[in-house]
Amino acid sequence: MKTNYNYPDKNGKFGQYGGRFVPETLLPALYELDQCYQEIKNDSSFTSEYEKLQKEYNGRPTPLTFADRLTEHFGTAKIYLKREDLCHTGAHKLNNAIGQILIAKRLGKKRIIAETGAGQHGVAVATVCAKFGLQCVVYMGETDIERQKPNVFRMKLLGAEVRPVNSGSKTLKDATNEAIRDWVTNVKDTHYIIGSVVGPHPYPMIVRDFQSIIGIETKEQIMKAEGKLPDDIVACVGGGSNAIGIFYPFINNEEVNLIGIEAEGLGIETGKHCATLSVGEPGIFHGMKSYLLQNSEGQVEEVHSISAGLDYPGVGPEHSLLKDIERVKYFSVKDDDALKGVDLLTKLEGILPALESAHAIAYLEKLMPQKSKDEIVIVNVSGRGDKDLAIIIDNLSK
Amino acid sequence: MSYIKDYIEKLNGRNRKALSIFLTSGFPDKNSFIDLAKQVLNSGADMLELGIPFSDPLADGPIIQASSKIALDNGIKLKDVFSFSEAITGGTIKPVILMGYANPIRKYGVENFLRDANNSGVKGLIVPDVPLEEYDSFFESGVHKIDVILLTTPTSSEERIKAIDEKSSGFVYCVSITGTTGVKENFSDEVINNISRTRSLIKKNKMMIGFGVSKPEDVKTFSPYCDGVIAGSAVIKSLLNNDNYDTTLKLISELSRACE
After folding, report:
1. At what angle do helices B233-241 and B246-258 cross, to 10 degrees?
2. Do B12 and B259 form a contact (C-beta atoms < 8 A)?
């Protein structure tokens, strides 16, 4: 068993990845954030408030559901679903938003900013800002505003200001650029709640730690249900927060296969995809060194996925390390297959997954034929699909 | 001795602050860019800062972002930036420095980049997303023929400013405001106090002030606290708004006169 996995190092590096590649203005704020986090993470007044909110506000622990009909459909290993779709606001994003709003309070920040792709992180941040009475500004690409309208309306209803971003591909990448620019400008009174395990140190670590609650619960639940660890855990990867969240507590359990599923969009060969770890190469983007989809000049590529939450040319630095050391295997699933995944889980289990999570479900088509009946597979259902109904209906009727 | 520091010192010795003008390489037009750069120098700029266009320029406001996009649409690559540099530096003693984000430089190969920049007559380099913390791992060799210039900002502590001065060569780029590049109406006492504080901490290098410098009055405001000023967004905005270069060149000569 591997027990020496301990990242990031003191410089915020996961092996060669991570770091703090941001303008000088932000460095003091990153140190302040790191120091505050180190202080509070073992402070009982913080952890008790955090745990109370996770239980009584977010609805944790989320269930681990045995998917009997899905299991029967494939006829091999038992399939369990980790139900992050049942979190308050409909996705795992609130796990992190709760932790970070408590940090923002400790730091005395009055204003919160966030980026969002699918709108799930934006909704989570708008929710905690409503709950704690803080001003909230969410940056969202115009393309995403168009395709995730229900979440835009929810954020507004929650009292957040949604600022449309019309630069670049008008998606998550560009929303993140704009949020960083806002933070550079207003760093004194503003806390930036990053929604994934991306950005400069200490964000990839903080977001991972808050999302690890998914894997910690999963481990307890599967031990209780089956008396043993699973053989495989499958999760979708955009920036990679739900995946790190469920993987991290299992990293030292080397007998557990960890599988990350990226969005292959219309196919690798078309260039319209987000399979960063599969075909990208290391680069420097959004404050971190990590795998990146880029052209021969080092310009960041405009990428595509049917799922706004996976539509991102970068990936969290810890995933880059986990790929290089081969602790996690990464594969990709196309738009059309993700849509089939939505249909499959809805019809067989009565669970409508988000398009993001449907990528992990769709991968079962490849994984399950390789499995045997005495094995256990867990899929992280990172969010629910209500927000995607318009896209799903539109595509399934084609 | 750094070429840039020596050059700024000589200007200062003639009671003049150095005026550095930022242009985005290959903007607004690829074919006439060298001509534009030469006219900028002839209109009174003492130095040129050539921006390397990047798809995701985090430290830049909307004006420079727009110019960067146009330059990329014009097909500008790093080899074009080097050939512009070579053509511009060929006929002048005025220093040319490059400003570019980390990823295109990393992709080209940092050592290759520094070699080719030096070979094309470039004297300095600014990489806004490589702060102190990442400097050593990014610039692995540690010794370069061209100056690497780091930035201070209003949020930098005394300790950081001293370390930035130590790590930089040529000059330290003092960012006047917290924020991205852009055009500002006026500067508060807080801005001036911070610049004055920064000035007192910089011992090794010259200090130039940038971000928000857009009119002759700004140059006058900052002059007592620096060795030179950098104007970027105001120039790019003027180029975006005017079909010919005359208005922009007039602005530069006004800024230049304010440096006396």
Report:
1. 160
2. no
Q: Answer yes or no: are the C-beta atoms of B103 and A295 closer than 8 Å.
A: no
Using CA of residue A295, residue A298, residue A303, residue A309, what is the dihedral sign? positive
- Interchain CB distance below 8 Å, B77 and A24: no
Taking an 8 Å cut-off on Cβ atoms, the answer to whether A300 and B102 are in contact is no
- Phi, psi at residue A133, to the nearest 5°? 70, 40
Look at residue A318 and give its three-state secondary structure. Answer: helix
B125: three-class secondary structure by DSSP: strand
Helix (H, G, I), strand (E, B) or coil at A114: strand
Tell me if B56 and A168 make a contact (CB, 8 A cut-off).
yes
CATH code, domain carrying B34: 3.20.20.70
In eight-state DSSP terms, residue B40 is H
Q: Could you read off the pLDDT of B64-98 as tens digits, one per residue?
A: 999 999 999 999 999 999 999 999 999 899 999 99
A115 catalytically annotated: yes
Residue A123 has pLDDT above 50, yes or no: yes
With beta carbons less than 8 A apart as the criterion, state whether B128 and B52 touch. no
d(CA B103, CA A289): 9
User: Residue A8, preceding bond cis, omega within 30 degrees?
Assistant: yes
d(CA B27, CA B24): 5
Domain count, chain B: 1
Residues A372 and A75: their CA atoms lie apart, in Å, by 9
Spatial separation of the C-alpha atoms in residues B89 and A203, rounded to whole Å: 42
Contacts of A341 (CB under 8 A, 6+ apart): A333, A353, A358, A359, A360, A361, A362, A364
Range of the domain at B20: 3-258
The verdict on ipTM greater than 0.85 is yes
Q: Within the 111-130 window of chain B, which residues sit less than 8 Å (CB to CB) from chain A?
A: 128-130
Q: Which residue of A has its CA nearest to B178?
A: A185
Phi-psi region of A2 (alpha: psi -120 to 50; beta: other; left: phi over 0): beta
Cα B73 to chain centroid, rounded:
22
Residues B59 and B129 sit within 8 Å (Cβ to Cβ): yes
Tell me the whole-structure pTM to 2 decimals: 0.97
Which 3 state secondary structure label does DSSP give A169?
coil
A249-276 pLDDT per residue, tens = 999 999 999 999 999 999 999 999 999 9
Query: How many whole angstroms separate alpha carbon B137 and alpha carbon B252?
Result: 38
| Active-site annotation holds for A93 | yes
- A383 three-state secondary structure: strand
